[in-house]
Amino acid sequence: MTEFLLALAAFVLAHLVPAMPGVRPRLVALAGRPAYIAVYSVLSLVLLAWLVVAARRADDLWLWQPAGWQWLVAALLMPVSLVLLVAGLAEPNPLSVSLRRSDGETLPASAVLTRHPVLWGFLLWALAHVPANGRLVPVILFGTMAALAALGMPMLDRKAQRRLGDETWRRLAGQPVPLSRTRLAHLAGAAVLAIALYAWMLAQGHALLIGPDPLGGLRAFYG
User: Nearest 5 degrees, angle CA 134-CA 140-CA 144?
Assistant: First the structure.
């Protein structure tokens, strides 16, 4: 359990510290944006891998026995989560997090759904995994991830407001985003990619990368 808590603390700090006012701009100015993104991405993946391994090795205890409907919660929420994650990461978003830098004020297709699609995707991912994992370690893990995603939304709002200015932020954050053909095409593409990823995770990806087989859990109740 000690290793798991250390890995969890390191993962959380790696995401909270750069979000503090002034920290990320200093790191970007020091290393350059491409180097910062590369190092931060590798660090996040390493810490995530350590967290998964530590969680699997930790001593654990049952808090409740999962029921069939609890497995269905994860099965139904995960496609929505993946669509938000893929759509949010694929396009620049001046109001939130994305893999692509935004230099303008054009809102992405995913802004039709929510201002913070990536964080909502992570929040749904975390919440979807709590009911089907009735053990202490997964509950701590996914509960922390859900809290991290939820806390990140107001933090990103304040960050974007400082960067864009009050007037521009209020205009962008408050305006309805029209669902044009271009945005609809982007959302459809993200949905196709997300469903393909979801199918792979169900078929073998989850068992290969994480360990538990989600289809095996569903078959245990509905097979």
Answer: 130
Q: Is the pLDDT of residue 223 over 90?
A: no
Q: Transcribe 15-30 into DSSP letters.
A: HHTTTSTTHHHHHHHH
The single-letter code of the amino acid at 145 is M
Return the SS3 of 180.
Answer: coil
Q: 220: pLDDT confidence band, cut at 50, 70 and 90?
A: low
3-state secondary structure of 62: strand
Burial status of residue 185 (CB atoms within 10 A of its CB: 0-12, 13-18, 19 or more) = exposed
Q: How confident is the model at residue 103 (pLDDT cuts 50, 70, 90)?
A: low
Longest dimension (CA), the chain: 56
Burial (0-12, 13-18, 19+ Cβ within 10 Å), 139: middle
Closest CA to 209 of 5, 72, 49: 49
For residues 64 and 137, is the Cβ–Cβ distance under 8 A? no
Both tokens of 112, joined, read: 């039709």
pTM across the whole model: 0.88
Residue type, 14: A
Q: Dihedral sign for Cα 201, 195, 37, 163, please.
A: negative
Asked if residue 63 lies in contact with residue 136, where contact means CB atoms within 8 angstroms, the answer is: yes
